[in-house]
Amino acid sequence: MPKKRSGGGLSPTQQAAKFLGVSVLAGALLAGIALPAFGALGLAAKGSVESFDELPANLKTPPLSQRTTILDAAGGQIATVYSRDRTVVDLKNISPYMQKAIIAIEDSRFYEHGAVDPKGVLRALNQNVQSSGVSQGASTLTQQLVKNVAVEEAGDDPTKVAQATQQTIGRKIKELKYAIQLEEELSKKKILENYLNITFFGEQAYGVEAASQRYFSTHAKDLALPQAALLAGLVQSPSFYDPVSHPQAATERRNTVLKRMAEVGDISATEAATAQKAPLGLKVKEPKNGCITAAKGASFFCKYVERVFLSDPVFGKTKEERAKIWNRGGLTIRTTLQPQAQKSVQDSLKDHVYKSDKVAAATTLVEPGTGKILGMGQSKPYGYGKNETEYNYSVSSSMGGSNYGFPTGSTFKPFVAAAALEEGRPVNQQYSSPYQMEYPSPVQTCDNKPWVNNNGEKLENESESEKGPYQLKKAMELSVNTYFVQMISDIGLCPVVKMTDALHVVQGNGDKLPEVPAIALGSKGISPLTMATAYAAFASRGMYCTPIAIESITQKVGDQQKSLEVPKSTCSRAMSEKTADTVNTLLSGVVDSGTGQQAGLSGRANAGKTGTTDSRKNAWFVGYTPNLAGAVWVGSATQKVEMTDITIGGVYHAQVYGGDTPGPIWRDAMTGALSGKEAPPFNLVNIPNPPSKDRGDGDKNDDGNNGDGNGNGNNGGNDGGFLTGLLTNGGSSNGGNNSNNGGTFFQGQTNGNGNGGGRG
């Protein structure tokens, strides 16, 4: 129970009447306001008391906003974020020098009076009369606390802040009543503790603990006498007496505090004189607020955590409720970010792509079976300067990513294969897979309105030597375009949609994938996080788990810590174990002898798929082991850079392929992340090799100049989306024929049809 005080033996109304009567009849000062004449009140004392009694009885005391600390999975600090940098501490953890200094300079009779100090009023009145102005106020620490509470409640709303600090009689009367209430309910020590925790000390520091850290890099409990006097002096005018900007003014103000401490008997004259000669002794710690200051290259992950908090209903029913909790702070958020994995991601990106390169790279690592995001980074750092960005290329637009995600190319083909296997197609399914063909027509859709190739559009494979017949294993290894288009024609579009729905594969803007054959070749933009979590379902034998970034949250409320509910990963079966095992076998072949050989890991089971899109604007590698999945994207966020005749990370590329640029990034990131970890095997199935053909395998690279036929069918679609535009517009004549412009911002999608088709 809080200690009760009598307020000097008078009831609240009597005390207010006594004070107001004295002040009004004196015609001068009311709780720190100089009144030049009696008529300025416009009220008799009796009327003032009646108005006083009509005020609400209870002060609304908001929880003090504090800094929030974001930790990695091992408990290491990633970043601190706050609307107000404050760490609330108990009075016992505040230096006695600090307690005495603030009382001496702000309210030397604090322990002797109630909510109002009549002697202080008369002293201030006398001083103001002599100076013909307002040179001194008479607000007690309790009244100042009430005003600071009002400011805290106002938050960052400038209108509310102005109302909380306006110099009006009405506000001062309200302040007085609430001060009396606090004196009735709280002990003097608790009032002092609250005051020292709420007060602004300048340099973005709220409360004495944050101020001690900011100016002296020490804790409030360890403040020496000169340090305490300096901080106490700041309260009157934090900007004017700022020791960083105005050391001389700060020194003079500190010495004034020391002199006052000696006058009231808190220290001796000798102690004061010695402290006055001491240097300021600043050891300034720069404010580090926000994800931009995050360690371990985790700025983008940090912002993702913030977005999760502000968007997930588990933290509040409305956006406003969630924002209020976030801004109040005092949270300790332990995330899923694994330090070893995050370091490996950043090291790999740094080794392979320079931040000054024309293109960027993004990598995301996810744990199969749990959905935990273990690593997330990109080559262009978080910031607002040259070669920096605030956009997180790994995530969807709603979470701070690009407008549409990025076309995935042939990394989409495993979804088609999984859908076919779930439909009962045999693992040795064979199609004629010619070098060039028209899109098969009609193709069944979910709404029984078949897609029809009204314009006879064609697509091609990588090279003329790449022609069937092919069975699934070889078609996957070589990423044969015509094979997978024939497969999607055979099973229809609905099974593919059903599979991608089960894997939560949506476009980067949140829209569902369109029911058109071109999706088999990765023409639509998808985020790396979406791709990594989808492939993680293959690794976990068909169980899809939604991605999560937060393990736990505790919130400091007063002296207590309470746990908050956090979002949980939801796991569901996306496909049978047999289908997943078969896909794992197929994609193991891609890294063993197919287009992804440069990405292959040593000494552990691994699988994956390459992808490159039209005009080589995007290159991908998405892969996994049984215990880790990851996606790597390389390209231009604006979709205006064609990765031909280009140098990336100091390495020249005549043409960029999914295997030769994203592949090695994935390999190195995964190798470091898995170092020292177990190496479990896949549950592989037996897929007999078909009879060999007397022909070469052609170019084993993932991509070629054709892609998915989304150009003119001859040179890889320099018109960027011509065929896909025709397909998705049901025969439109222009079909998105300006893809080289890449849209107006990030990955442009002409008419929403997706301008980047997938090559092998």
From TrEMBL:
Keywords: Carboxypeptidase, Glycosyltransferase, Hydrolase, Multifunctional enzyme, Protease, Transferase. SUPFAM superfamilies: beta-lactamase/transpeptidase-like, Lysozyme-like. Residues 77-261 form the Glycosyl transferase family domain. It catalyses: Preferential cleavage: (Ac)2-L-Lys-D-Ala-|-D-Ala. Also transpeptidation of peptidyl-alanyl moieties that are N-acyl substituents of D-alanine; [GlcNAc-(1->4)-Mur2Ac(oyl-L-Ala-gamma-D-Glu-L-Lys-D-Ala-D-Ala)](n)-di-trans,octa-cis-undecaprenyl diphosphate + beta-D-GlcNAc-(1->4)-Mur2Ac(oyl-L-Ala-gamma-D-Glu-L-Lys-D-Ala-D-Ala)-di-trans,octa-cis-undecaprenyl diphosphate = [GlcNAc-(1->4)-Mur2Ac(oyl-L-Ala-gamma-D-Glu-L-Lys-D-Ala-D-Ala)](n+1)-di-trans,octa-cis-undecaprenyl diphosphate + di-trans,octa-cis-undecaprenyl diphosphate + H(+). Residues 692-703 have a biased composition (Basic and acidic residues). Residues 677-760 are annotated as: Disordered. Residues 724-750 have a biased composition (Low complexity). Residues 362-637 form the Penicillin-binding protein transpeptidase domain. One of its GO terms (molecular function) is carboxypeptidase activity. Residues 706-723, 751-760 have a biased composition (Gly residues). This is Carboxypeptidase. It comes from Streptomyces asoensis.
